[in-house]
Design goal:
The protein is α/β, with parallel strands linked by helices. The chain contains 17 helices and 17 strands. The structure holds pyridoxal-5'-phosphate. Its cofactor is pyridoxal 5'-phosphate.
């Protein structure tokens, strides 16, 4: 206990925190010291219901013993092996197991260490593919307003959140589709919104503007999480797929959040019935336990790149830790849990209860929208005049103080509990938000 107490009263100054208002946080820190199942445990011993699966990643819940055992075993069996020009069996086995979960023919797996790396890798695979087949003019990358694709220069180029872009230069030649968020037509939708499929036609507009032969790929999140849970309208992804096919443009789904069961299928492409050419994953791939990501590419893309003299590296890209043995061990143990407990489809079972519970918040102060899909939900609040984001932040702090963790982005509350969530946890999460909404002006 003493050691715990000491470690839990750290000097807050040296740590330059990511995506955090450092000074605000350090003035009133929220420190987590442990985790177990559906709960975090704070440094002062409070049990907090995890309403956000960490950062959308702890899909099987916290502290899973079999993952811990697999990691410990792997560290003393093979702690590291070079990833370039060498291999180790676990990486091949993990790629095979992942491929079995993917849509047919989308089964060539490139390992990374994060969602951001997965995004940049997918964009580079798209460029390399066009180049290998003699269409090297296709260099333009198309993203979408309000998209979040991590923080690499590729990711912020196709991303559409102004705060992540305004300070940094981006790659030349990118463009963006409009976002699909439309409260005037779609407020309080359950599941996919009715309106907005026609927004996919923006791609035709960009083709007319730039020329299809300059466009390599379009990247979208099938359900945009970090920007505040924007769900693809009915027919939108189908239309985007058709336009990409018409013009030889690759379609990339960023499934860093939706991958591994969040919507009730292993991947969102299966939920929506639309197949991309490439998709990115990370987060739930190891249940958040060890950093890892993976890009899934179609066989056509993989085969298209496997060209030229066989002694030459076909794709000049990779990371020291691509397919890290410890991450692969954690990932394999994670997939075993997902399979044994049916977690990759459990969101579909829980979704109706989740939906009802969330929509019970309608009518509470400042609530201007509630939306949900799978085990994801959002409550959008009216912003305080001149102080956007402060109201939802206050709700988050209030909930944390009363033992529920939620996430906020701007004035949107986002919720995405671990896929092991039970009805009682859902009741607790929703009650905490309801109470906070009544208290926060
Ligand atoms: C859709 C999407 N892409 C990429 C990323 C970046 O992942 P990471 O933070 O692991 O780099 C995220 C993170 O939330 C994400 O939601």
């Amino acid at each position: 206990m003493t050691a715990h107490t000491l470690r839990n009263a750290p000097n807050l100054d040296p740590y330059f925190m990511p995506f955090t208002a450092n000074r605000q946080f350090k003035a009133a820190p929220r420190l987590i010291a442990g985790a177990e199942g559906m709960h975090y445990i704070t440094v002062d011993g409070r049990r907090i219901v995890d309403g956000s699966a960490g950062l959308w990643c702890v899909n099987a819940g916290h502290g899973r013993q079999t993952i811990a055992d697999a990691v410990a075993r792997q560290l003393t069996t093979l702690d590291y092996a070079p990833s370039f020009q060498m291999g180790h069996p676990l990486a091949f086995e993990f790629a095979e197991r992942l491929a079995e979960l993917a849509p047919p023919e989308l089964d060539r797996v490139f390992f990374t260490n994060s969602g951001s790396e997965s995004v940049d890798t997918a964009l580079k695979i798209a460029l390399a593919y066009h180049r290998a087949r003699g269409e090297g003019t296709r260099t333009r990358l198309i993203g979408r307003e309000r998209g979040y694709h991590g923080v690499g220069f590729g990711g912020i180029t196709v991303g559409g959140i102004v705060g992540n872009r305004r300070v940094f230069p981006q790659l030349a030649g990118a463009d963006h589709l409009r976002h699909t968020h439309d409260l005037a037509r779609n407020a309080f939708t359950r599941g996919q919104p009715e309106h907005g499929a026609e927004l996919a036609d923006d791609l035709e507009r960009l083709v007319a503007l730039h020329g299809a032969e300059t466009i390599a790929a379009v990247i979208v999140e099938p359900m945009a999480g970090s920007t505040g849970v924007l769900i693809s309208p009915k027919g939108y992804l189908e239309r985007l797929r058709a336009i990409c096919d018409k013009h030889g443009i690759l379609l990339i789904f960023d499934e860093v959040i939706t991958g591994f069961g969040r919507l009730g299928t292993p991947f969102a492409s299966q939920f929506f019935g639309v197949k991309p050419d490439l998709f990115t994953t990370a987060k739930g791939i190891t249940n958040g336990s060890v950093p890892m990501g993976a890009v899934f590419a179609s066989r056509a893309i993989y085969d298209g790149i496997m060209k030229g003299p066989e002694n030459l590296i076909e794709f000049a890209h990779g990371y020291t830790y691509s397919g890290h043995p410890v991450a692969c061990a954690a990932g394999l143990a994670t997939l075993d849990i997902y399979a044994a407990e049916g977690l990759l489809t459990r969101a579909a079972e829980m979704a109706p209860y989740w939906e009802e519970a969330l929509h019970s918040l309608r009518g509470l102060p400042h609530v201007i929208d509630i939306r949900n899909i799978g085990l994801v939900g959002a409550v959008e609040l009216e912003s305080r005049p001149g102080a956007p984001g402060t109201r939802a932040y206050d709700v988050m702090v209030d909930c944390f103080g009363r033992d529920t963790l939620i996430r906020v982005t701007g004035d949107i509350i986002a919720m995405s509990p671990p896929l092991i969530v039970e009805r009682s946890h859902i009741d607790t999460i929703v009650a905490s938000v309801a109470d906070a909404l009544k208290r926060i002006a």
